[in-house]
C-alpha cells in the first residue's frame, strides 16, 4: 500500500476556502485554504485516507482514558492510518491506541480538526484533544479549528475546558478555535453583517408599490412603505430585491439599479446592517398579498406616497425619496450590476457600478 | 412591596434591539425588542427584579432534581420573585423550589432566557429547562433564545438534548434557539456577510499608493495592489478604508467616495463577502510599512500601475481600474457618505449616495 500517495493527494480533495484577515488581491478575498470544509453540510468522503499528525514521541494512551472505544475511528487506524510527523517521514501504525485527532494543515500554519472523524466517546475526545494540543504546540502550530456538529455537543465543554473559544455557529454546528502563539489571535473574524434590500417599484401610472406590515413598530404605524427584507444565504442583492417584492406583493419585477445604501451598527446581536435600496421595473400589476408578513399592499399614487407625514418628517426617509425622484427624472446615477470573473479566485461575482457615460443622463437602462 | 411595579418596569430597562425577519420601516430594520441583550458584553444589572414565568400548575420541583442548589438564584426568589402567569395575575412565592428559568418576553411571542441568571448546577439547569419548555409551550410561546456564556459551556449539551439548535456564537458565548410552533422557524438568521474595503489613493504626481502582501496567493505573486482589509466591528466603511491604508502604509488619507462594490458568495465559512472600493485623498506622503502583513509599499506611477499584466489580463481588475480612471477624469459618479438619523429607530447611520447634480461632473467633493 502506497501510503505516501494518500498523504499527498487527500488534502486537496477536501480543500475549501475561507477568508484570512486581509485581502490578498487587488480586491478579492484572501483565500485561506484549509484541509476540511467549514460548511455544516460538508460531508467528508469516508474511505479516503486523510493526513494526520503524529503523536508526540509516539506516546501511547492508556485504555483508562477510554481510547479503546474510539469505535469507527479504529477502522481508519486499523486499515492504514499513516502518521506524517515533523520530520516528514511517513510511517504506518496498526495499533489502536496511538492516536491524535484526525486533522489537516491549513496554509497559515494552523490545523483543522476533521469534524467527520471525531471520537464519539467524550473521554476519548478529551484525552486525544489534550494530547493533540500538546503535539501541535510542539510543532509550532498557530490557529486550531475545531468544528463540533450539533449531535456531538457533549464535546463542547471538553474543548472549552482545554482553552478553546467559540468562533461562530450555524444551526447544525459550532466552530471553536484555539490560538496557540503568544499575542492576539490572528484568526479571521466571524461574519459581521446582515444584508437587507428594499424595492422601489413604480408603474406607468406613476404609482408606487407599497405595503403595510403586520409586525411594525408603533412609530411606523400607518406608514405605506416599499417592500423590504433580508437577502438569503448566497443570494444576490438584485435577486433578493426582486424576490422580496414578489413574496410580499405577488408583483413580478426586474432589477434596474441600486440607488443608495445605508450602513447601521449594533442592530442584531451586536452585528451591523447594510441595506440596499433598489429601483425595480414592474413586469406585472396584479397584487397578491403575503398573509404571513403583510397586512396590506397597493399601488399608491407617487404624490400621495411622498406626502405621507411619516416620510416628510423623517430626514432619512425624505432623503431616500428625494434620490428616488431624482432617479425617476434621470438626474441621478444608480449602480447597476455586472457579472465578473476574476482569475485570481476563479469566482463569479457581482460588481456594482455606474454605467460610465459622458451625458447628463447617467442611466444606462 | 409593590411587585406589580417591578413587572411593568423591569423589562424596558433591559430592552435592546435585534432584527426580525423583515424590515418594518421604509428602509430601516425591523427592530425586534427583546427582554435582554444579546451582546456578550451585556451585563444584566443585578438587584433589579425581573419578570419571570410561572411554573405550570404551580408544580413543585423535587430536591432530587437538584433544584435546591440553584445558589444565587435563590436570592431573587427569596427576596421577592413574582410570577406573572397566563392569567395576568401577580403572585409572589418565597419557596426555593418553585422555579422556571428567569426569562423575558420578546415582542414576537418569544422568550429570552436571562444569561446572567442561569443556574450554575447543570442538573438544576436540566430540570428547569425541561420545566420551562413545557411551560412556554403551554403558554403558546414561539421562539426561545438561550445565550450560554463560554464559562457555562457544560450547559450546551443539556440544551441540545432538549431540542435546541445553535443560532450563532461569538468568542464568549453561544446562542441557542428553540422554535416551538409547527412549521419552519421564523427566527431571524445569523449574520451573513463580512465586509471588506480597499483604498485607491493617488497623489499630485499621479502616483498610486500600492502594496505587496506577505501572504498572497501564487496567482497574485508580484502584483502591486491597493491596500485592502476587513472593517472592524461597528466600523464605518469610510473609516475602515482610511484605517487600513494607514495601518498598511502609514499614509494618512480622507475618504472621498465609494466608487463600486463587489458581492461574492461562499467565501468564508459559507458566508458572503461585500467589498467596497473607495477613493481616498492622501494627506501625507511618507510611507511606513506594516511589517506584519505587508512586504513592500510604494507610490507607483499610475501608468505603471495600470499596465501591470496581472491587472490588464483580469476582467474584474481591469473594470475596477477603468472606473477609477473615469472617476479621476470626473466622468464617473461615486457614492459619498452622509450621516442620517431616522426617528423611527433613533439610530445615526450612514447613507451612501451620489451628490445629485445636473452637470456632467457628478463629483461633489
The string of secondary-structure elements of chain A, in order, is HEEHEEEEHEHEEEEEHEEEHHHEE
CATH top level of the largest domain in chain A?
A: Alpha Beta
What is the helix fraction of residues of chain A, given as a range?
10-25%
What share of the residues of chain A does DSSP label as strand, in percent?
25-35%
Low-confidence stretches of chain A: 1-98
Radius of gyration of chain A: 27 Å
**How would you characterize the largest beta sheet of chain A?**
5 strands, mixed
CATH homologous superfamily identity of the largest domain in chain A: Gcn5-related N-acetyltransferase (GNAT)
Task: Provide key terms for this protein.
disordered N terminus, 5-stranded mixed sheet, 2 domains, Nucleoside Triphosphate Pyrophosphohydrolase, 8 helices, Aminopeptidase, NUDIX_hydrolase-like_dom_sf (chains A, B), Pre-Nudix (chains A, B), NAD binding (chains A, B), alpha+beta, 4-stranded mixed sheet, 29% strand
Can you tell me about this structure?
Two copies of one chain form a homodimer. The first copy, chain A, has 365 residues and is of the alpha+beta class. Chain A has two domains: 3-179, Aminopeptidase (3-Layer(aba) Sandwich), CATH 3.40.630; 193-329, Nucleoside Triphosphate Pyrophosphohydrolase, CATH 3.90.79. Helix content of chain A is 22%, strand content 29%. Chain A has eight helices and 17 strands. In chain A, the strands form six sheets. In chain A, strands 5-6-7-9-8 form a five-stranded mixed beta sheet. The first copy, chain A, has a four-stranded mixed beta sheet with strand order 12-10-14-13, sandwiched between helices. In chain A, a hairpin with a 5-residue loop joins β5 and β6 (111-113). The longest helix of chain A has 17 residues, at 122-138. The radius of gyration of chain A is 27 Å and the shape is elongated. Chain A starts with a helix and ends in a 12-residue tail after the last strand. Mean pLDDT of chain A is 75; it is low at 1-98. Chains A and B meet through β1, α4, β8, β9 and β10 of A and β1, α4, β8, β9 and β10 of B. β17 (348-353) of chain A pairs antiparallel with β13 (253-268) of chain B. Chains A, B: Keywords: Hydrolase, Metal-binding.
